[in-house]
Amino acid sequence: MSNTDFVLAIEDLTVSFDGFKAIDNLNLYVDKGELRVIIGPNGAGKTTLLDLICGKTRASKGTIKFKNQEMTGLAEHRIVRSGIGRKFQTPSIYENLTVFKNLEVSFPRGRGVFGALKFKCTADVKERIESVAGEIGLADQLETEAGLLSHGQKQWLEIGMLLMQEPELLMLDEPIAGMSVRERELTAELLERICRNRSMIVIEHDMDFVKKIAHKVTVMHQGKILAEGAMEKVQADPKVIDVYLGH
Amino acid sequence: MTRLRTWLTSSDLAGIAVLALVIVVVLPLSLDIFRLNLVGKYLSYAFVAVGLVMLWGYGGILSLGQGVFFGLGGYAMAMFLKLEASDPESTKIQSTPGIPDFMDWNQLTELPFWWEPFRHLPVSLIAVLLVPTILAFIVGFAMFKRRVGGVYFAIITQAVALVLTVLIIGRQGYTGGVNGITDLKTMLGWDIRTDSAKYILYFVTCALLIGAIFLCRWIQRTKLGTLLLAMRDKEDRVRFSGYDVANFKVFAFCLAAMLCGVGGALFALQVGFMSASFVGIVPSIEMVIFAAVGGRMSLVGAVYGTLLVNFGKTFFSESFPQLWLFLMAALFIGVVMAFPNGLAGLYNDYVKPRLGRKRDLPSEPPEPKPLPATTPSHAPAAGWNPSVPRPRTDPKGVGPAVA
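YS: structure for the whole thing
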């Protein structure tokens, strides 16, 4: 494929586990500054798709190009360093560390062994930690042990840890699972804010939330894309209603 | 600068100071040189335990083959001392004078080429540090890059220990076999068998051990230390934050191996021989027991653990020769079941809160909840605190951070 303007261009992507094709010849393009939501019934391959993009799972076939650079075959930490951040489904934070330390560890400096030995928490690092903490609403909790945060705050902290790295593509796997109504609203606002200068892929089940945040929706089913487009269009699609929304 | 000051006044340093007082002042004043030399031997094991705190406690990587690195360091030192003890004059009754006695018994007629470098003390000292580290690097790189971890890694380290033991015992002519390298006498002409030499070597061991603890404590406080802990609990999160996790594991493994090498060399100097019985699977597991009894998150605790287990071993084996292995096993099982964080955990949970409250209250009023800080104070005490149960609202400085 020739160079494109897409931040992320996935073509003919296939992964099979013992013959079962979890992702089957999938094509997906994400624009700069776009917030894409992927929906689909359980087992549709949504999380597997994110795993493939961030290198956790290796593709059997196909290409994943991020800023026209091939990502398949790169080591996970190289993919992260090229600008792709991934949030896991269950909050994945360092529970025994303070919020401050959680963010500090995520700062993209001193990533080698000796770099980490020499790393100093200088003023610019602190400034960045404070600004991210403000963004995710944890400015008052910097010295709190992360394990003591509420579930929603943990989710925000993990998003904050990704923001520390200023990724150009941010992938969130069910960011509002288990959140209260108020927390969902705050999260929607947060995602809108942080999407201004980056692209995002969000997996979500909550349709009201999806309506609120999505620029474009992709519906997946059995490892394939069933429909793609604006939320209203997708919701009206009979195929989609049949496999997913109708239930 | 302020961080340095907060550290120096923190309980960490107090813990190290108390340990230094015990091993440098109290024990030498209260024990005769025979017993003190035994303590020196135990302290050389403590290097292994300190290394295991970094590798196992912090890095979450259990190695059951640390004896390999201890042995390599010990053999490197012993080879130098043996060559010095085997000058042509004192070995003139051999059929080939000037080579170590066991080589002569095994019909070797010249020194193997790889023994040659060990004629020089600086080379031997470098070998003490580098040979274990390089082996650890090779094994670690091969394993961790392939994401071998946990039980599988532990089994492989056991295999390495077994292989090295078999190799040493099998190549008797080159290594001294089961007997090991014995009859070590002098180092650059200085007789290491005299009481004064034993005293000096004891204090050198103490100094190096405290230096090693400081080095490890410093590493724990850098971002690398934080990353080791982070990896232990959420390896994927660290990997997907842009870190090559394997490199950090290799580093921890190499660091632990280098400490083992230093311990082994000090062991050879103080005990006057080195043999394959300190390399194999059983001694390697014993070394893990030292760290477990002391508390695998605590550098200082690991030293106390080593001393306690070895004192126990000596005491039980002198008093109850038939029972001592069972008693040792009971000690280990008891400690692990009752106090999973070892002596250090015991201290942190029961002793320290009492001490701390008395001491800290006047100077620092308890804060029930950290206030919204615009400039984070970033106190080291508020960092990792894995050994204390979480739902606690201890005032700062009471609960956390084991040295």
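YS: worth flagging: Confidence is low (pLDDT under 50) at residues 359-403 of chain B.
IM: good catch. Also The two ends of chain B are 20 Å apart (CA to CA).
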